[in-house]
Amino acid sequence: MYLVRPVDFADLPALERLAQQAGIGITNFPANRERLNDKIASSRRSLQTDVVQPGDESYLFVLVDTSNEQIVGCCGIDAMVGADAPFYSYRIDEVVHASPQLQIHNRIPALYLCHDYSGTSRLIALVVDKAHQNPLAMSLLSKARLLFIARYPERFTKRLFAELRGESDKHGYSSFWDALGKHFFSMDFQKADYLSAVSNKHFIADLMPRYPIYVPTLPEAAQDVIGVIHEDSSQSADILLEEGFEFRGYVDIFDAGPTIEARTESLHTITQQKTGKALSLTEKSKGAMHLISAGHLEHFRVTAAPAEPQVAGLAVEKETQEQLAISAGHRIQWVEL
Amino acid sequence: MYLVRPVDFADLPALERLAQQAGIGITNFPANRERLNDKIASSRRSLQTDVVQPGDESYLFVLVDTSNEQIVGCCGIDAMVGADAPFYSYRIDEVVHASPQLQIHNRIPALYLCHDYSGTSRLIALVVDKAHQNPLAMSLLSKARLLFIARYPERFTKRLFAELRGESDKHGYSSFWDALGKHFFSMDFQKADYLSAVSNKHFIADLMPRYPIYVPTLPEAAQDVIGVIHEDSSQSADILLEEGFEFRGYVDIFDAGPTIEARTESLHTITQQKTGKALSLTEKSKGAMHLISAGHLEHFRVTAAPAEPQVAGLAVEKETQEQLAISAGHRIQWVEL
Amino acid sequence: MMVIRPICQNDLKSLYRLAEKTGVGFTSLVADETILQKKIDGAVRSFSKENVTKPTNEDYLMVLEDSTTGEIVGTCGILAAVGLDEPFYSYHLGTITHASRELGVHNAVPTLILNNDFTGCSEICTLFLEEDFRHSKNGQLLSKARFMFMAQFPERFTEKVFAEMRGVSDENGVSPLWESLGRHFFSIDFKEADELTAQGNKQFIAELMPNNPVYVNLLPKAARDVLGNVHTNTVPARRLLEQEGFRYENYVDIFDGGPSLEARVQDIRAVRDSRLCLANIGQPKGVGEGSHYLVSNAKVTDFRCILIQRSVPPGSALTLTQEEADALCITTKEPVRIVELSPYSRH
Amino acid sequence: MMVIRPICQNDLKSLYRLAEKTGVGFTSLVADETILQKKIDGAVRSFSKENVTKPTNEDYLMVLEDSTTGEIVGTCGILAAVGLDEPFYSYHLGTITHASRELGVHNAVPTLILNNDFTGCSEICTLFLEEDFRHSKNGQLLSKARFMFMAQFPERFTEKVFAEMRGVSDENGVSPLWESLGRHFFSIDFKEADELTAQGNKQFIAELMPNNPVYVNLLPKAARDVLGNVHTNTVPARRLLEQEGFRYENYVDIFDGGPSLEARVQDIRAVRDSRLCLANIGQPKGVGEGSHYLVSNAKVTDFRCILIQRSVPPGSALTLTQEEADALCITTKEPVRIVELSPYSRH
Question: Which of A325, B229, B306, C292 maximizes the CB count within 10 A of its CB?
Fold first, then answer.
């Protein structure tokens, strides 16, 4: 069985191992021990804080393989990006240039540097150990965050976004970076990516182009990857797209990976999730697979297990109750997977 | 009683009189006989055309005082603006400039010339004779259009917008124009306003500023009127705002009057309107005031009268039936006013 | 003798013949009788204006005539003020610096900024000399005669004057800058765009060209390399103007990236060093030897400019042969303007 | 005798005293010992560099010394290349034309475009002369000694050199351009912004200044009127540079709209007309009468420049008095550079 719970300091070595596996292009999950430790500390502080409205909190969750208590995945939520330094994206806007006389009507896409996502909650860094990249584990880890948001809506903004990793080869070579960013940063993709994760992002404002970039003037290889998802991320992307996330023409400034967004209230998991009592099942459940969560803030737990919805609540197996540290009658939250 | 019906060629003199009364600032209803005649012709042609999707059709309706058969008002819908020449607006976008070191965080509104409303249906030119500017006549005239849209959704786009007249004094002086447009057009507001109504709008692209205008650099008098509705238009504005129209940061390029928009499907009149049979009432109705429409395209009629909703349909008075040229059993459309 | 004079109505056929020889890309002289007739009309009108106090839309088109045969073998022109009827576009090659002290990165990024900065400015243009006559310093006479006219009538021109130089393209007329920039926005060919411009139709530039600066560092190397450089055939013309004091001030053509060269009229060598003197007619010494000098008269409608050669530097009075005086349309004691043909001509 | 020489470590106190007298707005010389010491260190390092082949971050700060008293009464400087550490900003005053043939409307709209076009360019700067010494052509000596240095060592500077001139502000230091433009974006005072810039802190300009061109026609008249104009006190300095060939090429200061004047080094009158000759020491004729000449030696570290007066124009060998030679740190037969003090000094 798998279990999702908030991160703890003891998880640091496991996180480091995961970050190294994840590699380049996941800027908000850098393989840097100090930064990871900061992230853990921030998550714990956030869970212990009484929050009235979203601020600079961040929440980090780990995926545990309960068979051996190993940490095999990790994901998070930033309550609001851009609170201290602006959060930059490229917005793809079409510029229309028309000459009636020559009967030409051109729609030219251009990249505008913007911080339209500043002030918005963000899903970050879904990383799962290769051996555990199965649909169940991936869905559990990804959607556990949405159950958390549904439970604590005051901690998040009404809009939610996620950045999907853009196209780059196994050496970290990004044709988009090569055609654009490189000229302004005078460093390679890996370094910029790393700096953007570990330093304040002020250098982006300092170095990025201030005028729009007309897409057709870029080399074709760069044009081709704008808004394209890295194949390693397609599975986690699909989970979010099925939830109701949409691409609205924003891409990452480094690798042009797409940013997807949604109104929190309209996400599938959030509209479908129910709250009620846990009921006991004496035998193996024949019900459908459910995401089930319990526990308050630091003790928040989510697992995936077969369960049977009943009028009085959700009937779950004994083992599931143990995983969630609940017994019959406790308040739980669930959604069919 | 009042009746709204499509315009006819015979209405030209009355329209001319109304246009002269309306004066400056209603660019899509110019006091120019030829142009008005064109508008009538276009409306008739549009109603006679079999439309599958919105194009360059336009529809013009008149408000008739049935006591003397006088034309006392007029309004219209453009199926889609910007089909031949782009439709220009200013979008107010905030530019964020921040210096962490100086602890300065400025949000500077700037006007961007755009044609974001190109390709959208537009409500145009609500003009009512002074003597008839009562809530009943105004609502009837304004909402009759929405009943028409509800009846023929394939003829309109999913988004709908209306331009509200901006602040200018009785001599047509607009402090916004004076601070901005005048410098680029080298003509007075009246002339630009008139030209924009009677000529193709290409000259706007030729003459308007191509770079954004930073609002704080404009004189205060000009800043003060951005997005402000002319008091003569406040009544018709209120009707639309109550329907569900919203201001989304777009203003007119000449007088900075606000543009308001809505998704057609979410407008009050459109969600609430019902279709069914006309039933007869033998006596005066004690029911609430309703907008009631009947007739197909060229024969489309709307009136406002007391009526009583029943399970089988809407019971209306004899006089109302006569106005709409229907009898019991005919198909009608209605909404409570 | 080779004489520069204003074009006149009889020159239409000769001008047409020249236009036919200019070839593709020489857009200010196209072989179209209507257009050429209009040009002649404009020039005749301009040269006959008497009291011009400031430049407006005059077009001073001159021809180089072989006075022995009456043949027209070249043209040159000056526009008093460009961009007053149709906007005149150029790119300004500017710099934007992006620096992060924190990271120790400092980038000076070149940018192309669309502008109409030459609006109202005088332009020297339409220089063409028949191939058979490209000898005996005819090219210099043709180009520099314009400076003599400007020196004599500075009120007819702006303080600053400029010249557009043909940019780099290959033997098939393919321009690297156009291919990586203009093409994306115009959806037409370079040739077509160039012709539209030549016909004075520039509306489409405003309509189709992006307003925002273009980052030069994002353009392919082939395009970057041609910015501010001239076509191989234009190298001598550029050198000639630079010797006269014209400078490249980072303005380039929006289509092919060819440079505009500019100078203050008063700083042009031939203007600054030229002086008025009175003509004597007689037997001057050392004719046909020594240094070359440009000599022009001081008339507008009957403007003339010729090349003379003298072994003894002329003083405050200049002795001309009868033939020279006739070519200049002057009689004795009339004022003439003289200057060394080139900055290094005192050999 | 008044002598121009490189600043040295002993001059800190004198420089501080001068800095105290410059007053508000003279941002390149602020009375702060740490900053001034850094400036001196930089200058000493620059003058002691032997084999400079191209300009980098040298800062040639010189002083005017009264050799009889040893008193320092003025300074002048040249930066070899600006904008390499911190971005250097200016506004370019360009033109955008909006025309509608249909309506017969044609507007040439001036625009201010933020740029870093002077990046890497040499700048003459930090000119200050004590009030009591503003006579006897000391001001000209101070300003033009820099051109002698540039004429001698052109490889140390860029082809183009520029000078920023103080813009218009009223007696309270209020700048009309700042009030209607900068203020809206900076949320700080002109003085504060100016001081930050002086301290080499220009990060905030990139952060706060809008990128898009500003339409000049939308600015209040008071602001439009000061663009490219200098403060009343700066009018003589501007005239002096213009006489030397400096030109206003539509670049203005982003805060107060004061003009930048620019010139090609080789086109500066004092550079172009100056010539090297060998010095004789003896009793020259006509000392103290006639025209003034700038004379400098040909040394870097021991650079000196003085003013002499001669009634007879010096020829290819220049005879200097012993005092003059001492002031120039030269002995007989050493090369010196000479030029007329001003373009009109041959009276």
Answer: B229
B240 φψ region: left (φ > 0), alpha (ψ -120 to 50), beta (else): alpha
- C2-93+114-270 CATH choice from 3.65.10.10, 3.90.180.10, 3.40.630.30, 3.40.50.1360: 3.40.630.30
Among the options C92, C106, C184, C231, which is catalytic?
C231
C100 in B contact zone (CB under 8 Å): no
Among all residues of chain A, which has the CA nearest to that of D206? A206
CA-closest candidate to residue A123, choices A74, A162, A169: A162
Among 3.40.50.800, 2.40.40.20, 3.40.50.720, 3.40.50.410, what is the CATH number of D274-340? 2.40.40.20
pLDDT at A27: 56
Which residues in D lie closer than 8 A to residue B211 (C-beta atoms)? 111, 212-213, 215
Give yes or no for B9 touching C (CB within 8 A): no
Catalytic entry in D135, D184, D231, D347 = D231
Tokens 């050493």, located at residue: D334
Residues A206 and A332 in one domain: no
Closest chain D residue to A211 measured between Cα atoms? D211
Domain that holds residue B126: 2-91+113-269
pLDDT of D248-257, one tens digit each?
999 999 999 9
DSSP state of D157: S
Say whether A210 and D211 touch across the interface (CB within 8 A). yes
> Which residues, in sequence order, are bridge partners of residue B76?
B60, B124
Q: How far is CA A212 from CA A85, C212, C220, D91, D122, in A?
A: 21, 7, 18, 20, 31
Least confident of B196-205, D90-99, D290-299: B196-205
Q: Residue D276: is its pLDDT beyond 50? A: yes
Please confirm, yes or no, whether C135 is among the known catalytic residues: no
Q: Looking up tokens 């928009």, which residue turns up?
A: B261
| Residue B216, burial from CB neighbour count under 10 angstroms (0-12, 13-18, 19+) | middle
CB-count burial class (<10 Å; 0-12, 13-18, 19+) for D185: buried
Number of Cβ pairs closer than 8 Å across B and C? 6
Residue C142 makes CB contacts below 8 A (sequence gap 6+) with C4, C64, C74, C75, C76, C127, C129
Using a CB–CB cutoff of 8 Å, tell me whether B220 touches chain C: no
pLDDT value of position D346? 44
Instruction: Indicate the average pLDDT of chain A.
Output: 88
- Contacting residues of A for D207, CB less than 8 Å apart: 205
Q: Is the pLDDT confidence value at A9 over 50? A: yes
Q: How far is B157 from chain D (nearest CA, A)?
A: 32
Position C235 pLDDT exceeds 90: yes
- In tens, the pLDDT along B161-176 reads 999 988 887 777 888 9
DSSP for residue A152: -
**Torsion on CA atoms D183, D185, D189, D191, rounded to nearest 10:** -100
Please name the residue of chain C whose CA is at the shortest distance from the CA of residue D266: C245
- Chain C residues closer than 8 Å to A193 by CB: none
In a domain, B97, yes or no: no
- B86 with A96: Cβ contact below 8 A: yes
* Whole-number pLDDT of residue B23: 64
DSSP H or E run through B94: strand B89-99
Give the three-state DSSP class for D243. helix
Q: Tell me if B108 is assigned to some domain.
A: no
pLDDT band at A170 (very low <50, low <70, confident <90, very high): confident
Residues D317 and D71: their CA atoms lie apart, in Å, by 32
* Average pLDDT value for chain D: 90
